[in-house]
Amino acid sequence: MNKPNKRLIIPIAVAAVLLAVLAGAWYYHRQQLNASRLTLYGNVDIRQVDLAFNGNARIASMLVVEGQQVHKGQLLAQLDSERLQQTVAEASARVAAQQQVVDRLLAGSRPQEIRKARADVHAAEAQLTYAQLQYKRSQNLAARDVVSKARLDNNKAQYDVAAAQLNAAQQALALALAGPRKQDVAAAQATLQALKAGLKLAQKNLQDASLYAPEAGVIQTRILEPGDMASPQLPVYTLALLNPVWVRAYVPEPALGLIHPGMQAQILSDSYPDKRYPGWIGFISPTAEFTPKSVETTELRSSLVYQVRVFACNPQDQLRLGMPVTVIIPLQSAARESQTPGCAPAQ
Predict the structure, then answer these.
(1) Is residue 293 within 8 Å of residue 328, measured between CB atoms?
(2) Residues 236, 242, 248, CA angle at the centre, nearest 5°?
């Protein structure tokens, strides 16, 4: 039997020792690295909005389709608004007519009306003076039995009528000088305000016939089509908002004390392996739950975890809904003072 070659044993032993040293160093470095950061796994999540008309009418036009990116305030769809336009026109005319009534009451009597009332008073005074003279003359003649009692009574009645006419003319002049009653002005102004409120309501109904994007996003679903009847209960589009974008991840209970809201994070995806997206912890669930089956971790799926929401900077819209990502949280970093940093993906 051949004896082992000592020249081969020594190098092999040295190599084995070196490999053991390197393995130990690598393991120590890995342990130190894992102790300085927390790695989580999750999926990208966004907010979705169901857009519906605030009115009941037939859809006239749909202006965007699935997958189209829209900006805040962009017109998306319109209802048939002919009847609403007529309602606005009618309400506007009612407001204009009532405004004229209020203006007339506030302006009071015209100068011509006041001058006429004064002229009527002067005429009534002259008529009363004449009737008074006739009545006195009849009284003197009746005392000498020159005129009949019937003529005396007739002149007395003419005098009374003239006095009443003068009183009426004086009251008419006082009304012309005083102007309309405060109660009449207040009632006319209240009616005007009610009509203006009706006009605003009609204008709001007309405005609601147009559907606008509440925020920037992407049309995820186009549900209705032109000709369909719309109502507040029937969504027209489903809009996926571009911001905010976050990662829904889960942290095991033993690591819960290592993180807190505001901590920096980095997000990695398989789709863009060379990019790291900056982020920050914005929410930690106050209640525990079992690990969802959709989350791939090295931990047991039956262990209790807490949901963590890590907001992401996504200016190029590369992080999409449902995308699986890895979240790295440096445990040595301090919390950010602001939870809305400037979002520019790190290369």
Answers:
(1) no
(2) 105
